[in-house]
């Protein structure tokens, strides 16, 4: 199914911008449903419903979609889902290129989100102590170099 045909070209363009800027994030992914959040002026949650691996339905809780329209948030999630599907094969391992093609803002956002999910796990291990020690050491060195 060419899902882009379901959208107004302007909406597709805006959704693509949201996707490229890292505004869409997959929260959970199952065989028949993908749940995501898209950040913009507000955060909106959306879902992709799948049947036999094909897109069956899409949903977003934004006001534009509530009026029965396919919105930019849906498009952003679909772009992200499509990208993840295309790159989930074992041949896609060029992490250096992926990072090089990612803006510093997207990397910061990813690290912040990763730490939110990983922090409870890190708190149960010595890794957090090692991390804090390294950060404090770097902070002290940075302060010393300024004086």
Automatic annotation (TrEMBL):
Keywords annotated in UniProt: Membrane, Metal-binding, Transmembrane, Transmembrane helix, Zinc, Zinc-finger
Molecular function in Gene Ontology: zinc ion binding
PROSITE patterns per the UniProt record, alphabetical: ZF_SWIM (PS50966)
Keyword Iron-sulfur applies: no
Alphabetical list of Pfam families matching this protein: SWIM
Listed InterPro entries: Znf_SWIM
Membrane-spanning intervals of the chain: 117-136
Top-level division of the source organism's lineage: Bacteria
Record-annotated SWIM-type domain positions: 44-82
Protein name as annotated: SWIM zinc finger protein
Organism: Ruminococcus flavefaciens
